[in-house]
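ARCHIVE CARD
CATEGORY: sequence design from structure
SOURCE FIELD: tokenized fold
FIELD CONTENT:
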């Protein structure tokens, strides 16, 4: 990829195609709630090899069509984050070239893996390419921040430490981490989980000493085992309140923990998707097959994080 350019999209005739990869919060610490009501976070974020697919066909009018196995869960296209991001960019870029956006929805909705944010980020990358914009263009960055807290990290779709309200990103180099993602097909609203966390405006969840203490994550070239050891020292502060809202999250964690070879099991984001890390892809695939057999209604993906 040329530095300073948007990630290159796949070209299909006159159409451009991008993937909206699932975001996985390997850790998620809620530092506190700011006086403006937003929550400051600190999270190690990775991206999975499962994704939605977004196509841009140039045309005179901005439109969105949604298809795929989970299309019905997306609601009305007019309310989709993809159109919101595109319209916000159109307000900042004169004569923005757009057209027909077609979303193939394969990721669960309201699942803690940033599906909607990943789709919005994919739309911004497509529009950047169609209009010759650099991925660092200040208008693109501004729109990503306005569209949603997870859109900036999904714009780059690169492993990182995400802090603040999702606006500060420190890139990380991860090995390929074998994993299983499981969602019980029960949506969980992020706002409900933060409400259940119960922080008042201006309240810190951790001590000042913890906030300013630098965390040293493994260096490039570290093994999966090294990363699991480091990640195991972390947590997801939203797991307990999310499980109070949807008890099935506890069942998902129990099912993943019961598989052979699971090194680390945790919820991602605000739930209900949970993940398990394994030593190798064979063990991950075997675990996924068992969970599919035991829970045929659940969404299960076996793959790698990176």
């Amino acid at each position: 990829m040329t530095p300073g350019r948007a990630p290159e999209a796949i070209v299909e005739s006159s159409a451009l195609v991008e993937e909206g990869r699932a975001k996985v919060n390997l850790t998620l610490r809620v530092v506190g709630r700011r006086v403006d009501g937003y929550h400051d976070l600190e999270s190690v974020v990775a991206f999975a090899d499962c994704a939605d697919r977004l196509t841009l066909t140039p045309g005179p009018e901005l439109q969105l069509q949604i298809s795929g196995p989970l299309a019905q869960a997306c609601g009305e296209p007019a309310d989709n984050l993809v159109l919101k991001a595109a319209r916000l960019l159109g307000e900042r870029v004169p004569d923005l070239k757009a057209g027909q956006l077609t979303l193939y929805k394969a990721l669960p909705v309201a699942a803690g893996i940033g599906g909607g944010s990943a789709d919005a980020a994919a739309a911004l990358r497509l529009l950047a390419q169609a209009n010759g914009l650099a991925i660092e263009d200040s208008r693109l960055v501004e729109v990503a921040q306005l569209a949603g807290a997870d859109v900036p990290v999904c714009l780059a779709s690169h492993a990182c430490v995400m802090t603040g309200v999702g606006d500060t990103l420190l890139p990380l180099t991860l090995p390929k981490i074998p994993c299983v993602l499981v969602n019980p097909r029960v949506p969980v609203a992020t706002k409900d989980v933060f409400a259940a966390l119960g922080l008042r405006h201006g309240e810190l969840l951790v001590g000042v000493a913890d906030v300013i203490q630098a965390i040293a994550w493994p260096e490039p070239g570290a093994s999966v085992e090294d990363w699991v050891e480091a990640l195991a020292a972390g947590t997801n502060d939203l797991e307990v309140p999310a499980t109070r809202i949807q008890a099935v999250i506890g069942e998902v964690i129990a099912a993943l923990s019961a598989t052979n070879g699971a090194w680390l099991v945790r919820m991602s984001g605000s739930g209900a998707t949970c993940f398990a890390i394994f030593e190798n892809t064979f063990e991950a695939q075997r675990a996924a097959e068992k969970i599919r057999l035991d829970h045929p209604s659940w969404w299960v993906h076996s793959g790698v994080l990176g």
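CARD ANNOTATION: Residues 41 and 259 are 30 Å apart (CA to CA). Residues 10-171 form a domain with the Ribosomal Protein S5; domain 2 fold (CATH 3.30.230.10).
SHELF: design records, drawer C
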